[in-house]
Amino acid sequence: MRRFFDNPAYRWFLLSCAYVVIAAAVIHGFYAKWRLNDGHPALGLSQMVEGTAYRPYVYRQFVPALANGIQDMLPRAAVARISERLAEPRRLNSRLGLAMRYPESEALMPDFTLRYHLVYYLTFFALLAALFVMRRVCLEAGADAAAATMAPAVTALLLPFFLTEGGYFYDFFELLFMMGAVLLALGASRGTPLRLLALLALAGMAAWNKEAFFFFTPALYPLLRRNLPRAQAAAMVAALLFVCGCVYLALRMRYAGNPGSTVDYQLWDNLRFYADPGNWLRTESTYGVLLPRGFGVISLLAFAGIAVSGWASLPQALRRHALMALSINLPLFLLFCSPGEMRNLSMLYPALMCLMALSLTRWMKRETDRHPHTMAHAR
């Protein structure tokens, strides 16, 4: 019996159970905070799946296209039956539907109900997949197995805090795509042609999900450079930029007639916001509890400590990646993002997670060295 429970397959089963619980908690925290922008005329989900949302939100069509494609593959009678089952909160089998907890979704149009649920669950599975990818990235960064398992969970649990001023389903796919790109770039020397082709395909989907991935691709250069010659790494970044640019231009042409604008300039609003000390001490409800906002003094102190603790252990390629991502993301954040919108520092997610994993590794090693007899007895 003990052999069965010590089997690696069983340990993967336990890890999967833990990550499912983490992903479910995070998605619920996100949904309770922002829903799917229900009823918002510019960027509500009904407008996104119908392609009538305002620019630039309408450009983020990867998940709406998936939901539309899945619904289109089903017979209309099946769509009607499933939608009725999901939308009716008073029937015994309505536990599948979001309407049971959030009555606002009862008002969803019948043709939209299934797509609403599809986007919700696709977002959940994207986060779940991201957790496993993030764990592998942590191992590549040099974290031990325990820290590499915990750091993705902690990073994921922080996401609802980062979703200040708004939260969107495509933020979770962005996390998956960024972490996947980092993992593929780090392992570019192993099965190089297939990995590089996979990275190009991932870049196309990531740009379809959110155009900001175009700006993230140059930060992959130090990771590619770890295992590839300079010319090949530079050529790969150029190819990634080309793929992302083509996808973005196609979306921009497709939705050129939609209301809105390509970007909103926010520099002066941002400077005024960050110059006000009161904005660094705000609170908001996250996970149903009034807590400090994701952007503020508490977060700044916590992340500074993580950075200081883990920086010395971070591999050189990831250090350069982090610095390059910061040099790209920070100006874009100040120029184009709403004040305090911390989710738009998402290019720093991989670096933050790796620093957290290495900090945990260092902390656990220090505790083991401090209490060797206790740890040996526990083992």
From TrEMBL:
Keywords: Membrane, Transmembrane, Transmembrane helix. This is Glycosyltransferase RgtA/B/C/D-like domain-containing protein. The keyword Membrane applies. The chain crosses the membrane at residues 12-31, 114-133, 145-163, 169-189, 196-221, 233-251, 290-312, 318-336, 348-364.
